[in-house]
C-alpha cells in the first residue's frame, strides 16, 4: 500500500491516444486497474471541453480534467467535500480559469498579424472537412475540436525562420505561443504545469493525508511544464518527433514503446504494487 495519494496527469494525443488512430486500446486494461485502485487519471491536454467530455465518457473517467493547455480546469461537482475557492459553477462542474477568452486572441490575430497571414491557417477559418482531412478526426470529432473557449490553434504553412519571427511578434503582443503535436496554440500565459500544481493543491487540502505523489505523462513540447512540475515525469516516445527537452534530472523516464503502449508500460512499472493490490491508501 502506498503512503501517498497518487494522482496521474496525462496528455492525450500521442500519449494516451495513438498519434495516428486516436485509439487508447493498449491502455484500457491499465485504466481499469487504476480505477479499481482509486488512482485518479486527470487528462491534461490541448483539447476542448467538448472533446474531453466525449473522451472521458469513452474511457469511463469521472475525474477532473484540464483543457486547452492549462487554460481551465473542470472539476465534477462533489469531487471534493467543498467547492474550491476561486471557482465558478458551470453546468456540472466547478471551473477554474487561468486565461482570457478565445475572442481576445482571434481579434489579435485578425488585426495585428497581416504580414504573416499567408503563412498560417487558423482553426476558426478551417472547415470541418478540412480539419478532418488534416487531423484524421471524424467530422463529429472535428466539430468538438473547433469549440474552443480560451485559445486559437493555427496550422503553420511557412518555413521555420518565418515561424520564429511570427512567434516573436506574438510574444511582443502579450500572447503565449505553444507548439503542440500538430498545431501552434495561441493564447494566454497558462500552461499544463500551472494547472497541475493548482489542482494538486486542491486534492491536498481535501485529503485526509497531505502526502501526494504526482505522475505526469506526455510526448510533446506543450507537455514540458507538466512534466517539470510533477514528482515523476514520463516522456512517451513519439513516432513523429523527438523527446522534448526537460531541465529536470531526477525521477524522469522515457518509454521505448509509442503512445498508449508506452503509457501503459510506464504505469505498470511505476505502480506495480498498487495495481496488483487494486488499492490506494487514501480515497
Could you explain how this protein is built, in words?
The protein has ten helices and 13 strands. By secondary structure, it is α/β, with parallel strands linked by helices. The strands form two sheets. It has a nine-stranded mixed β-sheet with strand order 5-6-4-3-2-1-11-12-13. A four-stranded antiparallel β-sheet has the order 7-8-10-9. A hairpin with a 2-residue loop joins strand 5 and strand 6. Helix 4 packs across helix 5. The radius of gyration is 19 Å and the shape is globular.
In brief:
By secondary structure, the protein is an alpha/beta fold. The protein has ten helices and 13 strands.
List the helices and strands and how they pair.
Elements: E1 5-10, H1 28-36, E2 41-44, H2 49-59, E3 65-67, E4 72-76, E5 88-90, E6 93-97, H3 102-112, E7 120-122, H4 128-135, H5 139-145, E8 152-156, H6 160-172, E9 176-179, E10 184-187, H7 192-206, E11 212-218, H8 224-229, E12 232-237, E13 252-258, H9 259-270, H10 272-277
Parallel strand pairs: 1-2, 1-11, 2-3, 11-12, 12-13
Antiparallel strand pairs: 3-4, 4-6, 5-6, 7-8, 8-10, 9-10
Helix pairs in contact: 4-5
Q: What number of structural domains do the residues give?
A: 2
Q: Between the first and last Cα atoms, what is the distance in angstroms?
A: 12 Å
Unreliable sequence segments: 279-283
Tell me the helix content. Answer: 25-40%
Largest sheet: 9 strands, mixed
Content-based structural category: alpha/beta
How many E strands? 13
Number of distinct helices: 10
Q: Which CATH C-level class of the largest domain is it?
A: Alpha Beta
Mean pLDDT, rounded to whole units? 92
CATH fold title of the largest domain: Rossmann fold
Silhouette: globular
CATH-derived architecture of the largest domain:
3-Layer(aba) Sandwich
How much of the sequence is in beta strands?
15-25%
Secondary-structure element series: EHEHEEEEHEHHEHEEHEHEEHH
Rounded radius of gyration (Å): 19 Å
- What would CATH call the homologous superfamily of the largest domain? HAD superfamily/HAD-like
Strand order of the largest sheet: 5-6-4-3-2-1-11-12-13
Amino acid at each position: 500500500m502506498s503512503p501517498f495519494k497518487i494522482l496521474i496527469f496525462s496528455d492525450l494525443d500521442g500519449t494516451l491516444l495513438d498519434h495516428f488512430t486516436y485509439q487508447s486500446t493498449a491502455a484500457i486494461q491499465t485504466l481499469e486497474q487504476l480505477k479499481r485502485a482509486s488512482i485518479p487519471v486527470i487528462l491534461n491536454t490541448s483539447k476542448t471541453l467538448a472533446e474531453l467530455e466525449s473522451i472521458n465518457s469513452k474511457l469511463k473517467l469521472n475525474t477532473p480534467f484540464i483543457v486547452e493547455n492549462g487554460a481551465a480546469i473542470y472539476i465534477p461537482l462533489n469531487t471534493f467535500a467543498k467547492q474550491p475557492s476561486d471557482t465558478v459553477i458551470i453546468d456540472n462542474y466547478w471551473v477554474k480559469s487561468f486565461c482570457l477568452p478565445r475572442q481576445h486572441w482571434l481579434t489579435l490575430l485578425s488585426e495585428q498579424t497581416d504580414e504573416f497571414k499567408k503563412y498560417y491557417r487558423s482553426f476558426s477559418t478551417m472547415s470541418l472537412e478540412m480539419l478532418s482531412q488534416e487531423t484524421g478526426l471524424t467530422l463529429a470529432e472535428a466539430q468538438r475540436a473547433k469549440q474552443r473557449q480560451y485559445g486559437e490553434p493555427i496550422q503553420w504553412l511557412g518555413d521555420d525562420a518565418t515561424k520564429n519571427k511570427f512567434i516573436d511578434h506574438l510574444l511582443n503582443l502579450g500572447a503565449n505561443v505553444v507548439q503542440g503535436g500538430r498545431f501552434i496554440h495561441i493564447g494566454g500565459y497558462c500552461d499544463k504545469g500551472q494547472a497541475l500544481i493548482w489542482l494538486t493543491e486542491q486534492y491536498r487540502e481535501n485529503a485526509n493525508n497531505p502526502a501526494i505523489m504526482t505522475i505526469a505523462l506526455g510526448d510533446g513540447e506543450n507537455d514540458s511544464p507538466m512534466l517539470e512540475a510533477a514528482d515523476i515525469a514520463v516522456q512517451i516516445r513519439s513516432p513523429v518527433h523527438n523527446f522534448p527537452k526537460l531541465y529536470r534530472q531526477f525521477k524522469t523516464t522515457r518509454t521505448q514503446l509509442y503512445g498508449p503502449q508506452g503509457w501503459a508500460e510506464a504505469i505498470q512499472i511505476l505502480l506495480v504494487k498498487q495495481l496488483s493490490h487494486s488499492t490506494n491508501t487514501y480515497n
